[in-house]
Amino acid sequence: MRFKSAIGSKTGSGQRNGPGMITRLALVAVIIAVTAVTAYSRQTPPIDYVPGTIVYKLERIEAAGQKGDVTDIQAQAGMYDQMPDQIVEILGAEQVRGQIQVLPGNGYREARMNALNRGMQDWRELPDDLTRTFVVTYDSGENPNILAAKLASLPGVAYAEPLFIHEITATPNDPFIGGSGHDYFGYHNFYFAWDVSKSSEDVVIAIVDSGVDYTHEDLRSKLWRNPEPGRARAMFPDLFSQVENDTIGWDFWRSGTSQNPVQGNDPRGVYENHGTHVAGTAAADTDNGIGIAGTGWKARYMAVKAGGTQEFPRSIGFGYQGILYAAANGADVINCSWGGSSFSAFGQDVVALATAMGSLVVGAAGNSGSDQNFYPAGLPEVLSVGSVDHRNGMRSSFSNYGYSVDVFAAGTSINSTIFNNQYGFKSGTSMAAPVVSGLAALLRSQYPDWSPMRIATQIRATATSIDEAHPSSFRYKLGAGVIDALRALTTDRPGLRLVDADYLNLNGEKLDLGEDGKITVRLKNYGAGTSQLDLMLEPLTPGIEVSKEGSHPAAVSTDAEVTVRFNVKIAPNFNLSAMPLFLLRIEDRGNSYSDFAVLTYDNILYDIHDANKILTSVSSTGTIGFLNALTGSGGVGFIPFNESTGDFSNPSVLFEAALMIETFVDSVGYVLDQARSITDISRDFVPLTGFQFQRSLDESAPSTGRGKFTTLQPGNRPHLDIELETYSYNLPGLDKAMIFRYSVTNLSSGRLKDT
Fold first, then answer.
1. How confident is the model at residue 412 (pLDDT cuts 50, 70, 90)?
2. Average pLDDT, the chain
3. Helices 345-356 & 319-328 angle (0-180, nearest 10)
4. Among 13, 44, 130, 508, which one has the highest count of C-beta atoms within 10 angstroms of its own C-beta?
5. DSSP assignments along 643-676, one per residue
6. Rg of the chain on CA atoms, in Å
């Protein structure tokens, strides 16, 4: 949206039509459909995606009479074999080289049988998302972010995104710092744990990384041999069309570019020893009289090379494909010592499927020394591992932390295998993750019937807190603490994980500022049954009151869910620049179990309009459709009414819409918005209120919505307050439209021009 005027400023002099007044400009627009607009003056970030490649997923098609058995699901997967016409039209100008379906119908059947054979109780409910997911390669040179945005705006497309490239997370260190670098076993109680379990040669840890030098004297006898070469290709025939004779693993990127990789059946690491170092920590030949020990003792490793080429030695270009390959070949644990800050919906679907097939994914939390999310470690099913310096018990200075990190393990100056039969020191969360992967292998052998999520929650539930050793600013951001291998193997603990949470007022509507309401929390217990469960909720941000509603069930069995409610009130003057956060304390005194989860109420910033034949969400940050357009989260999109079914069963037709203000101050141009740039969201607006929708009971009067936000003012940027009002009429001729009115107040000291 663009409007042009000169807006005055506020100085208190009372003058009009120039500096010294408050001028409000009202902007009214009728919205039927909205497309994305790219702002200028954006700094282009480093390329972290494969050129000429995108991934997209279609919405599910509900087949008439579908029963959900293997045959029906397989038939339904066949519905997606042909590309929809609108996608064909967009891709027609992109010089498409090929499109592959990630998981065809026959492959889905194989995946379900795989899960059944591995004892997964929910094998019938295996996620089918990847049957609707496609990878497209093209030669037009179009930016994958832009092409993905075009596809994502189409009806029936669930998401579209680039194929992201990740980086390994090791930080090389001086080999003389830290002594032997192999003295963390006692710190984590592995010596006593090995008296309980040394794992088994039948347990396999996949090392999805830069390749492994399996000729190393401490690794050659532990290499996994594929009992069924071609198994992964049978399950994913298009995605793994080149996989053949994969007797000892696979190399997804031997050479070439990420867009045109040369693959091969030799997963040996040649140019980057990161994967070799990781493999040694988890699965080196132990008790053989030479070199080092692996935390997984007898467990073997599967070498899956997903990057580490001569040209790009630190890049992991095919990490998610590597996870699928490992899961298809029956890996019990999949170690991912790599990642990036870009969330991937494709990656989330991949990890969900791998977990459902029986593989536990362990991820490095990242090395930026911050609390930013890092993926895949930040995904719900991944056991996220930060690094601790085992010599002093403190978080390694480079290690990420935050609410999504589960546990910490030694990752500073770790001595492990490198090229040429040598040993060397590395530091990083990359080094901490395989310490935990080895522990997971011990548990897998000791408790073969446990699901991946039960192993993950057991490791977290038996960790030792390190919060007290750190400043208060790290409280609840260090996960459950450092792993304890002996306790994990010998004390069966509950393991509750947050499923979801609802925030409603006493009328059953969205909870807003100044209202009394209830928070409904749903959790699932993956671990041992509870006997004296107690759940307590407290605010982590000021301006919120919480109290328990009634008693909570004390006994929750394994794999059962529990729902609890709390009374809550958010103050009318709550500062929305800080999202409402809640700490859920979880305790079971009968099992000496305690844990926590952090809840974020981001829905307060948006509300849903459904008063006429448009269903959409609007926020108090200037966005329409989604609060975060990159992830398609925080809202419902923009959904037109389905006249044939009489409901909103149509898919979203909107990828992104947002208010954008272009203006000049002293001949300097500014673009202020909350819209998507290339790989991130421009966050120029700060909410002053939540967004409230008020439904009209009179059909002749509009249903309305209101929200208010302001601009960030770093440097000399304009200071604007913006009030948004929305109107939806349920009258013929107006019931397919919404009206947006923006009132903009200039609070800057200077005059705005050409706005």
1. very high
2. 85
3. 10
4. 130
5. TTTTBS-SPP--S-EE-EEEEEETTEEEEEES-B
6. 27
Question: Strand, coil or helix: what is 57?
Answer: strand
Rounded Cα distance, 567 and 127, in Å = 35
Burial grade of 320 (CB within 10 A; 0-12, 13-18, 19 or more):
buried
Both tokens of residue 645?
A: 């079914």
Residue ranges of alpha helices (H) inside 42-104 are 70-77, 85-91
Number of other residues whose CB lies within 10 A of the CB of residue 694: 12
| Catalytic site residue from 128, 129, 209, 251 | 209
Comparing CA positions, the residue from 318, 322, 375 lying closest to residue 207 is 322
What's the residue count for the chain?
A: 755
Tell me the pLDDT band of 33, cut-offs 50, 70 and 90.
Answer: very low
Q: What is the C-alpha separation between 652 and 634, in angstroms, rounded?
A: 14
What is the rounded CA–CA span in Å between residue 493 and residue 591?
7
CA 336 – CA 355 distance, rounded (Å):
14
Q: What is the pTM of this model?
A: 0.82
Cβ–Cβ under 8 Å, residues 544 and 512: no
End-to-end C-alpha distance for the chain, whole angstroms: 11
Rounded Cα distance, 486 and 490, in Å: 6
CB 354 within 8 A of CB 327: yes
Q: Is 48 a catalytic residue?
A: no
Q: Say how many C-beta atoms besides its own lie within 10 A of residue 659's C-beta.
A: 23
Query: 125's torsion region: left (phi>0), alpha (psi -120 to 50) or beta?
Result: alpha
Question: Whose structure tokens read 């006692």?
Answer: 186
Assigned token pair, 380: 């719900």
The stretches of 205-344 forming alpha helices (DSSP H) are 231-235, 274-283, 319-328
Contact predicate 50/256, CB 8 Å? no
Q: Is position 430 annotated as part of the catalytic site? A: yes
The CA angle 130-136-140, to the nearest 5 degrees, is 165
Domain annotation for the chain: domains and CATH numbers? 24-32+604-746 (no CATH), 49-163 (3.30.70), 167-490 (3.40.50.200), 496-600 (2.60.40.10)
From the number of C-beta atoms within 10 Å of its C-beta (0-12, 13-18, 19+), residue 140 rates as exposed
Active site residue 209: yes
Our measurement of the distance from residue 628's CA atom to the centroid of its chain's CA atoms, rounded to an integer in Å, reads 13
> Would residue 68 be called left, alpha or beta, if left means φ above 0 and alpha means ψ between -120 and 50 degrees?
left
Rounded Cα distance between 672 and 23, Å, is 18
CA distance 218 to 415: 13
Provide the percentage of residues in the chain whose pLDDT is more than 90: 51
Q: Are 3 and 25 in contact (CB under 8 A)?
A: yes
Q: Hey, what are 287's tokens?
A: 């008790």
Kindly state the tokens that stand for 581.
């956060």
Kindly name the residue from 274, 277, 390, 609 that is annotated as catalytic: 274
Q: Which residues pair with 563 in a beta bridge?
A: 522
Query: Which helix (H) or strand (E) element contains residue 606?
Result: strand 606-609
User: Residue 548 corresponds to which tokens in the numbers above?
Assistant: 């328990």
Rounded distance, CA 25 to CA 552, Å?
53
3-class secondary-structure state, position 117: helix
Distances (CA, A) of 696 to 345, 609, 700, 702: 37, 11, 9, 6
Q: Across the strands, what pairs with 501?
A: 521
C-alpha angle with apex 662: 657 to 667, nearest 5 degrees? 165
Q: How far apart are CA 6 and CA 18, in angstroms?
A: 8
Is pLDDT at 619 greater than 90 in this prediction?
Answer: no
Please answer whether residues 137 and 98 qualify as being in contact, where contact means their C-beta atoms are separated by less than 8 angstroms: yes
Catalytic residue of the set 396, 430, 451, 619: 430
Most trustworthy range by pLDDT among 17-21, 503-507, 698-702, 710-714 = 503-507
